[in-house]
């Protein structure tokens, strides 16, 4: 397929700029792949679509405050440093994005407020990308504590262009978050509350975690018309044996395996056995790019937010639900004024 096939006009007022009052208060569109039926519900109604033996696969990655603001040595110029991932813990090397990039060269040092945290730029990786080495008098835990104190919740400011609030620190995170390492929350999971979970568990639904640390690969734009030529950045993921056992038993019993978000779906489809069952993986990397057509082996239901035009997460949703049907659903979502993007409403494809 072509990039231009995923372009559509999205009114600016339909992009959610703030989280809703309640996590589970979002609207939910239910799209039936077999019949093409589209229903308009609330997220709390998700309980009605799953039952005994069904599995919700959640991504338990935890967002860390990845956006730091430092000043350049000598000039004092303000520099944004966006932490992407740790490259080497012992050497304290990190892959980052800097802005404005034109001011930052190899050898520059950056200072962060009145703290003891200093960064030295040691390599250029892309136009905005740099490798930095943190200089800090303390162990890893103390350094990360300092980063937590200085860092800002990394809401996507290129779209949600506003100041970060204390509410973002709480809501730009799922209730499943345990394993720190993501620069963004798996947004579909942000709708769940403990109450919704309990109601589903009472109905016999099992929640099983995977971990995929969401990085720049999920958000980097596609700049080629031929999608087969696009390469995504690798993201670190893990699937525990217990989750495999639960998912594979559900598959054997023809139950629903619902990926909570495109990152959970990507993880499931990145570790498939020759017998089309889920394999465990301890510390893997995946650059799988899911776009139509795609033969899904594990997931047979998908919960996903409404995404921006030409984004790879939109392409993933179209691959799962069918390009024509999801395109129709998006047209209806705009007509019915569903909210889009990180803090927006949600779609359940079954």
Helices, strands, pairings?
Layout: E1 27-31, E2 38-42, E3 55-59, E4 61-63, E5 67-72, E6 78-88, E7 93-99, E8 109-111, E9 118-124, E10 129-135, H1 140-150, H2 166-171, E11 179-182, H3 194-202, E12 206-212, E13 235-239, H4 241-252, E14 257-260, H5 262-268, E15 281-286, E16 301-305, H6 312-321, H7 323-335, E17 346-349
Parallel strand pairs: 1-17, 3-12, 3-14, 4-11, 14-16
Antiparallel strand pairs: 1-2, 5-6, 5-8, 6-7, 7-10, 8-9, 9-10, 12-13, 13-15, 16-17
Helix pairs in contact: 6-7
Key traits:
350 residues; alpha/beta; nine-stranded mixed sheet; six-stranded antiparallel barrel; 7 helices
- Tally of DSSP helical segments: 7
Order of strands, main sheet, comes to 2-1-17-16-14-3-12-13-15
How far do the termini sit from each other? 23 Å
Largest sheet, in brief, is: 9 strands, mixed
């Amino acid at each position: 397929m072509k990039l231009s096939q995923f372009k559509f006009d999205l009114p600016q007022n339909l992009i959610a700029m703030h989280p809703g009052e309640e996590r589970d208060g979002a609207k939910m569109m239910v799209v039936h792949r077999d019949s093409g039926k589209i229903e308009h519900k609330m997220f709390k109604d998700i309980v009605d679509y799953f039952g005994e033996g069904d599995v919700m696969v959640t991504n338990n990655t935890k967002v860390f405050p990845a956006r730091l603001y430092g000043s350049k040595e000598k000039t004092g110029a303000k520099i944004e440093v966006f932490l992407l991932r740790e490259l080497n813990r012992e050497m304290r090397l990190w892959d980052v994005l800097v802005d404005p990039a034109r001011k930052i060269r190899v050898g520059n040092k950056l200072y962060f407020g009145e703290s003891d945290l200093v960064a030295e730029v040691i390599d250029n990786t892309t136009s905005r990308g740099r490798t930095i080495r943190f200089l800090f008098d303390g162990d890893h835990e103390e350094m990360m504590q300092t980063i937590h104190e200085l860092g800002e919740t990394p809401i996507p400011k290129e779209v949600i262009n506003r100041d970060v609030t204390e509410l973002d620190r709480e809501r730009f995170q799922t209730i499943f978050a345990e394993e720190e390492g993501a620069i963004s929350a798996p947004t579909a999971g942000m709708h769940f509350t403990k109450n919704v979970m309990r109601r589903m568990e009472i109905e016999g639904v099992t929640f099983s975690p995977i971990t995929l640390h969401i990085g720049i690969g999920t958000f980097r734009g596609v700049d080629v018309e031929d999608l087969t030529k696009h390469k995504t950045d690798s993201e670190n993921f893990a699937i525990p044996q217990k989750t495999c056992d639960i998912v594979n038993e559900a598959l054997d019993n023809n139950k629903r395996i619902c990926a909570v978000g495109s990152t959970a779906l990507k993880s499931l489809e990145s570790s498939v056995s020759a017998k089309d069952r889920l394999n465990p993986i301890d510390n893997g990397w995946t650059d799988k790019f899911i776009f139509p057509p795609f033969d899904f082996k594990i997931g047979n239901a998908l919960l996903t937010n409404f995404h921006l035009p030409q984004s790879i997460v939109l392409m993933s949703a179209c691959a799962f639900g069918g390009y024509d049907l999801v395109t129709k659903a998006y047209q209806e979502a705009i007509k019915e004024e569903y909210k889009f993007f990180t803090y927006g409403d949600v779609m359940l494809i079954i």
